[in-house]
């Protein structure tokens, strides 16, 4: 069995004029919140840490996992939408309107775009986590994403599961889900982490 802890990144510093979104760092409050999440998860030992490659997800992952500064995580860029491409621009436009809302709220506005991006991220994560013999799979994985994308990608990994709590929840900074997956990457247990 594999457990994946899916978290939204922690609180960030406001963007400065002209600063690329990917370079935004955690605020002091965000670092403290990530450390508090680590404590509330009972100081877990993760076999694998996956993030979007944006600085705030890398920092959140290192703090929650208790890893040194230079530890490399696996980057799955599909965990975030990209401004400048058609799918990313549509999701970003909705984000500017409704901000951090539930997956249901986004799915009512951009269902095809969000589902397409979430499925690409889920496939990439599946490749890193489950595309191995069962005795070689990581047992405890941390995935750090962004706002509604965390819910969307988590949702895209599920099969035959009641998603009502996942789809209606709104994740705050450093909140998410703990999901246990069985032998065939099927959901076994789901818990909201807030």
Percentage of β-strand residues: 15-25%
Named CATH topology: Rossmann fold
The helix content is 25-40%
Low-confidence stretches: none
User: How many strands, what sense, and barrel or not for the largest sheet?
Assistant: 6 strands, mixed
- What's the count of strands? 6
Q: What's the number of helices?
A: 7
**Helix/sheet category:** alpha/beta
Instruction: Identify the CATH architecture.
Output: 3-Layer(aba) Sandwich
- Look at the structure and name the CATH superfamily: Phosphoglycerate mutase-like
Order of helices and strands: EHEHEHHHEHHEE
User: What would CATH call the class?
Assistant: Alpha Beta
Strand order of the largest sheet: 3-2-4-1-5-6
Number of domains: 1
Radius of gyration: 16 Å
């Amino acid at each position: 069995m594999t457990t994946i802890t899916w978290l939204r990144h922690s609180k960030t510093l406001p963007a400065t004029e002209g600063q690329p979104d990917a370079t935004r760092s955690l605020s002091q409050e965000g670092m403290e919140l990530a450390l508090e999440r680590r404590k509330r998860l009972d100081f877990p030992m993760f076999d694998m840490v996956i993030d979007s490659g944006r600085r705030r997800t890398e920092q959140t992952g290192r703090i929650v996992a208790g890893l040194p500064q230079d530890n490399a995580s696996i980057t799955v860029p599909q965990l975030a939408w990209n401004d400048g491409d058609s799918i990313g621009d549509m999701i970003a436009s909705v984000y500017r309107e409704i901000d951090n809302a539930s997956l249901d709220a986004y799915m009512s506005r951009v269902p095809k775009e969000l589902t397409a991006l979430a499925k690409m991220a889920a496939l990439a994560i599946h490749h890193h986590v489950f595309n191995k013999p069962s005795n070689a799979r990581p047992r405890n994985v941390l995935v750090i994403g962004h706002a509604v994308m965390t819910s969307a990608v988590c949702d895209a990994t599920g099969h035959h599961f009641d998603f009502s709590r996942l789809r209606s929840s709104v994740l705050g900074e450093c909140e998410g889900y703990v999901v246990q997956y069985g032998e065939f990457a099927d959901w076994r247990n789901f818990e909201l982490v807030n």
